[in-house]
Q: What sequence folds into this?
């Protein structure tokens, strides 16, 4: 865990713009067993262009990363991206969730693999539950917040990306957790920075087609594997396997960027990948075009942060 703290601090030092927090307001959502859940609203910057070709730009609901053990909705290393989004005319909603692996003893040898999977799945599930509580809050207070709940894109990095992908899955294949949502609620899209889906019931299955999804992943990610791992009833579908095993076969709309020579640092590259996000938001989300991209990149404009070359043992030791 110490290495993860150091990695995040080092990333904060190489962010591409100043660490100035954009104007925001904080709202209390709900009390949980281990903490209170809040969300922060960052409205589009005054004078920014809030439409694209006459279409209203969405709010981006963001779920932070940190291995389910650290992190918060207002970590300063995210401010450059929030600032960029608001200046581009997008609103941001940064949300809390319970850190389900904080203080847990995690081992990944053969004898403890199922226990680790069970703990991780629980951490994802309570994260999804907390995101749904934030969604419900936004829906119930839409007018005063100035947010259109039908025009939101869910996004997350690392652990937050795992929560993001599972949240999208559950909105398309309802579970007991979705009961809190207004009937028929759907996100307009999803953006995942080094995410995956942890399943205890086989290959993830969508009862209705998911919204367009944007997936970023490093080809050498040792923390959130980009491929598939299965063991018994358990399975772990990284970005590459989600596309290859499900999305491409079902005809879903997605954009996948596979970064050569990168590991888990892609989880922190929200600013460096803005051009890809912008195209996704404008073409897939706002214009609703079913453009599919599957691209392998060796992009020198995306810095390789060796401080985020992490394995699971590095994170949870």
A:
């Amino acid at each position: 865990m110490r290495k993860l703290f150091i990695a995040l601090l080092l990333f904060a030092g190489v962010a591409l713009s100043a660490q100035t927090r954009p104007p925001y307001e904080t709202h209390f959502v709900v009390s949980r067993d281990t903490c209170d859940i809040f969300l922060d609203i960052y409205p589009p910057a005054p004078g920014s262009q809030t439409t694209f070709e006459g279409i209203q730009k969405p709010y981006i609901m963001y779920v932070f990363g940190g291995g389910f053990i650290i992190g918060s909705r207002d970590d300063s290393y995210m401010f450059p991206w929030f600032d960029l989004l608001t200046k581009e005319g997008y609103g941001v909603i940064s949300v809390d969730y319970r850190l389900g692996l904080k203080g847990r003893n995690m081992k990944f040898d053969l004898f403890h693999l199922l226990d680790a999977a069970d703990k991780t799945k629980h951490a994802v599930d309570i994260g999804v539950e907390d995101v749904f509580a934030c969604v419900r809050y936004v829906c119930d207070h839409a007018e005063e917040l100035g947010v259109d709940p039908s025009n939101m894109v869910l996004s997350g990095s690392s652990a937050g990306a795992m929560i993001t992908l599972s949240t999208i899955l559950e909105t398309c294949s309802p579970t007991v957790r979705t009961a809190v949502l207004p009937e028929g609620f759907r996100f307009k899209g999803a953006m995942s920075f080094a995410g995956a889906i942890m399943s205890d019931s086989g290959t993830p299955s969508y009862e209705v087609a998911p919204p367009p999804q944007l997936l970023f992943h490093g080809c050498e990610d040792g923390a959130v594997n980009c491929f598939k791992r299965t063991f018994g009833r358990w399975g772990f579908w990284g970005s590459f396997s989600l596309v290859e095993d499900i999305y491409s076969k079902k005809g879903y709309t997605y954009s996948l960027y596979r970064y050569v020579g990168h590991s888990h640092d892609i989880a922190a590259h929200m600013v460096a990948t803005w051009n890809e996000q912008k195209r996704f938001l404008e073409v897939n989300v706002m214009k609703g075009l079913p453009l599919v991209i599957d691209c392998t990149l060796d992009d020198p404009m995306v810095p390789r942060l060796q401080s985020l070359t992490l394995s699971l043992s590095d994170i949870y030791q």
